[in-house]
Design brief:
heterodimer; A: mainly alpha; MetI-like fold; 13 helices; B: 262 residues; mainly alpha; 12 helices; 75% helix
Chain lengths: 277, 262
Amino acid sequence: MRRWLLALPAMLMVGLFVVVPYLNIVVMSFRAPSPSAIYGPGFTLDNYARILSDPLYLGLLKDTLLYALGTTSLCFAIGFPVAYHLARTESRWRGLLYAGVLSPLLTGVVIRCFGWIVLLANNGVINQLLGLAGLGPYRLMYNPVGVTIALVHVFLPFMILPIMNAIQSVDPRLSEAARTMGASSARTFVRVVLPLSLPGVQSGVILVFVLSASAYIIPMLLGGGQVSTTPTVVVQQLMGSLLWPFGATLALVLSFTALIVVALFGAATRRAMRGVA
Amino acid sequence: MKRFPAWLIAFNALMYAFLLLPIAIVIPMSLNAGEYLAFPPQGFSIRWYVSFLNSEQFTSALLRSLWLAVAVAMLASAIASPAAIFYVRCLRAGREKFRLTMLAPMLLPEVLTSIALLFFFNQLFFGKSTIVPLMIGHVIITIPFVFLTVTSALYNMPPGVEEAARTMGAGPWAVFRRVTFPLIKSGIVTGAMLAFIMSFDNVNISLLLKPLGSSTLPIQLFDYLRYDFDPTAAAVSTISLTITLIVVLLIDRFYGLRAVRF
């Protein structure tokens, strides 16, 4: 039986257009730059040395990680209550609420950014409404505030959905048992629901962190040139100037740093989850 | 029994507003008669839709995005569905490795994937004048979605129906055509529609891989928004939202939105 032929087209696609290009990008990061071609002859470590010694790129990396950390924390603080309600509600509006959580995922990122521009601009909806109350106008976009708001909005579903799935798989009778035995509702939450939902929290945090560290459309549109993160600089380098080896190195250093953060987070939460998952 | 404290309900209501408001706001903006994106709208008008229709750049980008998304949806489901069948029905050893390989394009950052593809194509195959690299990029990132929906359709099949057909004398092909395929068709269709949405809305891949001189609708809108804020952008967004909404409603009818999982 040659049943593996079923998987052949997909394996070929992923192998040829994911694995090979990713290996290629690693090779590219070791190439020497050239003023006339895409890259010069020979291999070098200069690209890495330049990034790791230049305060400009290190600062950029730090900013990117701070945006990602801030977005992740806000998504968790906002997402957990929504996920908890959505997992436990028996309301007949449940389907509609679920669609509401999914809606940012199913809308293009440019449209979502445009929506935020309409809301946050100096003469935008929010400032107009504040103006009626005699406040403002406040500068809400083309700065880190606007970028963070949009990042949280775009990636919130990736936090809510895994947490919701985790809470759904926690037997509600466990909380009831804790309540019967005299635990307050707050204590039940902290000692029963929260620890048991940690696997969902873990995947939500990792997803949101990685996605927001590599976002570039949102900082470009809501930062309006005032906000630079590593991905925006990479894309500008690749589109404007043809500094491919350097762009490749910058992208890889960012991904690698994000990977280290995720691994540390994974190790830290694994201890907390011992005996849960 | 009161299940949720009032503050939780109130907090969540605010958060749903936060989720929906930026998406919903573009619709009234597109029907605004005023010259700028003013609020409250200054009267009702469809002039910005007329302005959209008169813009050759926007209309051709819309058509390009539509046929591209259809092609990507068909290719991704044709490639990923057999792989999902192989994974659920045939594969014994190395299952987790195979699953991760199929899901890799979804787990890897899209920016990195698009940069990798940009280098790869420019070095080896194509110049910047064909849409093939863009299409391949879209197919790559949509394969995981079809794989997931078809896999879950296969797991949700009533157990034993395939064996029953086989015991009653049907050959492997007849079993597939008469039993398996009809039962997983909704999974394939849902996956294809998700692929359509992902391709239709994609910016990360398209921005770097788009052919010179022709762009997709999201890219055209992206370029437009960097210099201009007039309500034509709102009209374009509303049209794009409507197309996505129709597809979402179709998914909901076929399979239920619960199929959209991550």
